[in-house]
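Budget justification note: compute hours in this period were largely spent on complex prediction jobs such as the one shown. Inputs:
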Amino acid sequence: MQIRDLPYTDPGEPDVRSGPRFLLWLGRQQLAGQLKSTAWGLLHQCGLAGLPLGVGIAVQAVIDRSGTRLALAGGLIALLGVAIAVGDTMLHRTAVTNWITAAARVQQLLARKTAELGSVLTRRVAAGEVVAVSTGDVEKIGWFVEALSRFAAAATALVIICVGLVLYQPALGVVVAIGVPVLALAVLPLLPPATRRADVQREKAGRATELASDTVAGLRVLRGIGGEELFLGRYREASQEVRRAAVRSARMWSLISAVQVLLPGVLLIVVVWYGAALARDGRIQVGELVTVYSAVTLMLFPLRHFEEIAMAYSFSRPSAKRAARVLALGRATDPSGTDTGVPSRTSDGPSGDLYDPATGLLAPEGRFTAVVCGDPDAAGRLAERLGGHAAEADELPSALLGGVALDGLALDAARAAVLVQDKDPVLLSGTLHELLDVPSSGKVAPDEALAAAQCGDVLDALAQASVDTDGDPMRTRITERGRSLSGGQRQRLALARSLVTDPEVLVLDEPTSAVDSHTESRVAGGIKRLRAGRTTVVFSSSPLLLDLADRVVLVHDGEVASVGVHRELLRTDTRYRAVVTRETDEETKALQTWEETA
Amino acid sequence: MIGVAAPEYDPAAPQSATTLPVGTPATVRAYVGQLLRRHRKAFALLIGVNAVAVISSMVGPYLLGGIVEDLSDDVQDLHLGRTAALFGGALVVQTVFVRLVRLRGGMLGEEMLADLREDFLVRSVGLPPGVLERAGTGDLLSRITTDIDRLANAMREAVPQLAIGVVWALLLMGALGVTAPPLALAVLVALPLLVAGCRWYFRRAPSAYRSEAAGYAAVAAVLAETVDAGRTVEAHRLGERRIALSDRRITEWTAWERYTLWLRSVLFPVINLTHTTILLAVLMIGGTFVLNDWLTVGQLTTGAMLAMMMVEPVGLILRWYDELQVAQVSLARLVGVRDIEPDAGDAEVHPDGRDVEAAGVRFGYREGVDVLHQVSLSVAPGTRLALVGPSGAGKSTLGRLLAGIYAPREGRVTLGEAELSRMPAERVREHVALVNQEHHVFVGSLRDNLLLARQGAGDAELWAALGAVDADGWARALDDGLDSEVGSGGLSLTPAQAQQIALARLVLADPHTLVLDEATSLLDPRAARHLERSLARVLDGRTVVAIAHRLHTAHDADVIAVVENGRISELGSHDALVEADGAYAALWRSWHG
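Corresponding output:
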């Protein structure tokens, strides 16, 4: 797999039974890549290990006053230099390719999983958990994947060097061969406390960042009411706590560095002492002493990979565990549907009256039905049930569209037939054109929908914010979640998007709660005009909207309490009047008190 | 063709107009200078301990050279005991000082980083409210999270490590020169290759890494959005499109990964060959000199060992120089906030009375486009004024002018005869508060969330304020009372409870005039009703300008101003306006039935 061939057409079916199994699965997918980079790594390490030989030969040649051998040593070093350069570069290229392909694969798996889970996801696992996998864990898993082949190459090279040294110069070689495992393993006991301290530091840093971003997010409140010093003080405290934790962590790491200087140094002294004595007695050549000395100094590089792989594994194991957990999630209801007799194509999906057996709510085909429900949470749940395949499975019977149970349909077919716009629809980032480019019947043009939802002021605002699109609002990007727009503007854009979709049945939950009365009456008219002849259900308590509905249904305590048109219900039904207008006895009293005190 | 061209699409290119300034090179330089001066003692200490560590690390090669020299001269008494003792002593010094270098480097980095993030927040909380209203907090937010994160590595590691690497390399060069000057010259042989390679690389690398990082962040951003918008994605059947978008972002990101990998595919051989060339040059030139008896074999050995040690500092410098270059952009974004003039205001301006008045006000956000035209209005103390009108008519803007957040382009907005825009923000808010849709609950205790409005208030005052807005019931039921942790990560409050906290803050801050901007509009109409009782108590006895969007709010007001196209088209009491049978009356009829 090369980087230019990414993304994968199919990222595969991961083994998500546990974190280590997931890592193993990832490794198996790129076995060839791992072997390739290990081979290049071996070339690099062996090239490095050969340098001392060249240095030793050169020094001995000079002692023996042989120009030819000096030149030969030069040739050897030049050759090794090329091997090192090629080996290192190719090792880097192949190892990085391993991590990029692994990271891309995990990101693709996550994208597919989140798209599949949709509304269910955040009920099963915290949103932050999923995002943490994508932002932090992928990198840690990638690090381990990348470090693995480097470690394999380094460990193999170390064995080769030790064997080579023993063969080349048995007396000194044995000393080194005994010393190397000690060096390789000596720092390992220090790593767990060091990584623990690093974790504490990261946690505190995360807390400080959270405080800072929270302070900034509420900055308008602070500047408007006060309390800047209070919050600055709090942040300074958190920031200094991070600093102290970081210094504590640095203490541990500096200890590790010290051990990494001390132990090889001791080995070096032993080699010099013993080797010099051997050389003095004529048992080894001076050049050989120099070779062994520089071999020991160069051994530090492959030795560091032991520390790296231990850390990479300890960091990536919890990451892999979390990734496996997220990827193992699934929907509670069967998204493929059980009612296989019904074709899942949009064009011949079910149609007819929408009926909810649990409450008795009926929305006749082609009519504009408004639902008034005193309890907003109950209204939200009812709206969700009207679309079938509710995120939280309950015991209630499925809503029926033209007599067909929506829960029995395939998820996609149910969503195509009934679009439920919840109370807090999210504007996905992108240009306005992209926002309105959703699967639709194709019968409602974006500008018609925008006009019906009274988005004129939004278009003006977007035109003003455009950078290089010559003031074309359709090509202007909407910031994340539409934060640059007001609540009312966001709501109207979301409504326009739902109108463009033009589904068989459109269910809207409080679509105009943040829109001012002037605009709301025009929006209500727009919905009615654009949805003429289509089934529309609106949950609202705004008289401006209710007044335009063909049929108004009052739902109370989970059951339909009365049905009629707005003006009639307003006159005849006191409970309806209480929910819709604000003239309950209590409130009237409150108003009177207010007027008296004012 | 060998090589990879830079991808055309650059994810780091700005996609929307940046709302806050980015620091100029001069500002950044000045800031860095100031930061270095503040920590110059720690810097000097770091360089000092580093020098000791490096010098003690050279004892080994020096001793080896001596031994080789003696051996080649067939000296029998090598004084091995003394050599080993010297080596051992140097090793102990080196161990201790390497530890110190690492520790001091870490401490210095942390201190600079702490300074930087605290400085930034200090500047941020001093921004004029008008700037915040216009720019929003999104840009600031990304600066304090993403940019600080990116800088963390640079400050924590790059700055100290670069200092260490440079000192190290210089000392090694110096040591080579001291051992035998011709050997120092040998190092220069390798220099042209290194310089040429690095120039090529560093000209391309920083912007490429920026794009690569932005590309990677974009991959994660798509996923985060899909998670956040789960319901919307499912309802609109956008799953396939989200997957396609994610795949596209991966293509864009990996294209940059491929490009930076190519850049390193050039740099890596250059560095590797430089190292070998240095070693080769030292051995060949030095060897020739020894053969001609211009140098001793001991000097050559020492030189060769020192040359091999060059690998580390060169690696350090190259590795961290990169990071520093990437960090520059983030630093410019952080320092940019310093370029905004804090509005000091005139501390001498005091209001005399509570009358709010706008006279002949014109205002626009952009040059030549006015949102308000010749608006005049006066609000007597204790009056409730409702501003109604269609979206985009300018009622929110008028509200912000009356709250002193923006200054009019023409005309005056005064409180008790004193111009609001000439007072410092801290003075204005003693008198006027803007209550908007943002009812932010801060991470922290419930107490902190209230104390911000009146610092030093006792618990009794806080409870009284909670009681005034009907919030003491649920607040007393909390396990830790006022010490309960709320906000993101803590106890999650309902929107209605959050709004009550916002109202309790108003009770504590006690301004005599309130500007309400659709304060309850984002709430469920049903929940909003409970709040209105709380709100009514807060409003009691104060001057209120309500940007109304539910007509009953208007109905209850003393005076209603209908704002249309930046002008006040109707002004009067509810009854008078209904009588007049204008736009307001039409709306009222359709609403009330």
